[in-house]
Amino acid sequence: MPNPEANKVTQWQLLLLAISFLTRLPVQLRFNVTGAHLNQASRYFALVGLLLGGLLALSYGVFQLLLPASISVLLMMAVGLLLTGAFHEDGWADVWDGFGGGWQVSQKLAIMKDSRLGTYGAAALLIMLLVKFQSLLFLSESLITVLSAVVIGQCVSRVVATSLIMGMEYVSEDATSKVKPLAMHLSVTSLVTLLVTAATLLVSLIAVGVLLWQTVFILVAVLLILRVILIRWFKQQLGGYTGDCLGAAQQLSEIAIYLTFVSVL
């Protein structure tokens, strides 16, 4: 008979699984991964974002000691692409290719599944990277500001993206999609863990004087509005979401965070 204890994993193992799923960081998973495990690991996506933000902030801090701000920002962005394997950027490009090039839902899904990059996706990817670069370059006038923006951008954007799983239907023609296990549901425990991670980060930055309460209030309001827009957009286009939609949501949320910093600071 199967042993139920064999499928149980610790929270540390779930965190390692989340790191393995979202990044290219070398992680050893000493258990048989199931869809249920990946679904549970989604609660740590914000924590993985915090880890990525810390690594990017550290890389920028090193680069700016020797290089101009513009080059340091570019190199930091390159480090981010290497750390994640351009995981979310790929979803961003696929979404624009599918939504721009398809008329029916089936056509959009087929285009999004295609590994080739189309005109819509290429243009959207270029614009997105340029907006990120220009925003971070503007914020680099203050080292503390750009570092905090990067950390918040990486962490909180993944809260917004992952939260879309709750209350939306997963749609895909590919039954073997690697993101499908996440589509089962987002438990209340996972949602609370995501929110607590982001809230702890923001409150900590307020406590040390890096952020103002007013800035956090504006940032949260912007992201809540963006979340509503994303849900309506994905439902209008597909009737639900795909893994590419989550990637696009993360990228758009990250951009919104940087632009909010640019606007209020």
UniProtKB/TrEMBL annotation:
GO-annotated molecular function: adenosylcobinamide-GDP ribazoletransferase activity
EC main group: transferase
Keyword Transferase: yes
Keywords attached to this entry: Cell membrane, Cobalamin biosynthesis, Magnesium, Membrane, Transferase, Transmembrane, Transmembrane helix
Membrane topology: Multi-pass membrane protein
Domain of life: Bacteria
Compartments (UniProt record): Cell membrane
Catalysed reactions listed for this entry: alpha-ribazole + adenosylcob(III)inamide-GDP = adenosylcob(III)alamin + GMP + H(+); alpha-ribazole 5'-phosphate + adenosylcob(III)inamide-GDP = adenosylcob(III)alamin 5'-phosphate + GMP + H(+)
EC number: 2.7.8.26
InterPro entries assigned to the protein according to its UniProt record, in alphabetical order: CobS (IPR003805)
Membrane recorded as keyword: yes
Required cofactor names: Mg(2+)
Main location: membrane
Transmembrane segments: 44-63, 69-87, 117-137, 143-161, 182-205, 211-230
Metabolic or biological pathway, per its Swiss-Prot or TrEMBL entry: Cofactor biosynthesis; adenosylcobalamin biosynthesis; adenosylcobalamin from cob(II)yrinate a,c-diamide: step 7/7
Family statement: Belongs to the CobS family.
HAMAP family documented for this protein: CobS
Role, per record: Joins adenosylcobinamide-GDP and alpha-ribazole to generate adenosylcobalamin (Ado-cobalamin). Also synthesizes adenosylcobalamin 5'-phosphate from adenosylcobinamide-GDP and alpha-ribazole 5'-phosphate.
Name listed for the protein in its UniProt record: Adenosylcobinamide-GDP ribazoletransferase
Originating species: Pseudoalteromonas neustonica
